Amino acid sequence: MTEPSTARASWDTDELPQGEAKVAAVQGMFDAIAPRYDRLNRIISFRLDVRWRQRAVRDLALPAGSVVLDLASGTGDLCIDLAAGGVRPISMDLSFGMLSADRSGAPRVQTDILRLPVPDASVDGVTCGFALRNLLDLPTFFAELGRVVRPGGRIALLDVSVPDNRVMRWGNDIYFGRIVPRIGALLSDGAAYRYLPRSVAYLPEPDEMLASLSAAGFVGATHEQLSGGLTQLLVATRR
Ligand SMILES: C[S@@+](CC[C@H](N)C(=O)[O-])C[C@H]1O[C@@H](n2cnc3c(N)ncnc32)[C@H](O)[C@@H]1O
Q1: Ligand 1 center to residue 72 CA distance, Å?
Q2: Distances from the Cα of 56 to the Cα of 49, 99, 198, angstroms
């Protein structure tokens, strides 16, 4: 019989990991939480996550039949909403565990989305839900979106946010800092659900992301906080 391991998971750290250690921690963490990911999402967001994804698909506003890459697709929730909206999604993610739990029926590709395995200007649009903070380098990601989206194509990117409103921010800190990790520990992986709220610190300010999208060839970029600032949505058109 083997003793249970007492080694800490690579995402169970006081300091947020950087560089390749971050990539390995993110991949290992999502592989570990994949089987219970959807259930936890619905519980901790009170099902608001469903509405946020639907809003992203609506704002993407691409005609039926458009080819859309859903990047960091996880278990495929956005792919389901995209298909319901009449477009043709392709699911791409780094985590084999998350892709294995994808029941959307979309074609699935395991890849690092900082290096997309598709030709220049070959897709009509891109969505990305709740993964910007997991990436090593956002300007590189935005440049990659600028490379693969055709002129006139659209992108819609969601991630968690820090509410502008002070009262909302206070409530958000308590809920995500103290309550969510306990729910995570009870139903999934406590370290992962401690890491996820802290990882918002990786995200640049909205103005910086908008400038970066403009440098990557996108125009008309907008940034909006949803549900009082719990989440943010970036939308833009390829020049
Ligand atoms: C919080 S989950 C979001 C999943 C899904 N988009 C959703 O809306 O529920 C973040 C996802 O990003 C993926 N991810 C993180 N870094 C990645 C990378 N460099 N390349 C591809 N996928 C990545 C993870 O494997 C995970 O599935």
Answers
A1: 4
A2: 11, 21, 24
pLDDT of 161? 96
Helix (H, G, I), strand (E, B) or coil at 219: strand
pTM of the predicted structure, to 2 decimals: 0.95
| CB 156 near ligand 1, within 6 Å | no
Hey, what's the torsion of the CAs at 150, 156, 160, 163, to 10 degrees?
A: 120
What would you measure as the largest C-alpha separation in the chain, in angstroms?
A: 61
* pLDDT tens digits for range 153-183: 999 999 999 999 999 999 999 999 999 999 9
- In this predicted model, what pLDDT tens digit does every residue of 82-91 receive, in sequence order? 999 999 999 9
Q: Which of 88, 65, 239 is nearest to 80 (CA)?
A: 88
**Minimum CA distance residue for ligand 1 atom 15:** 134
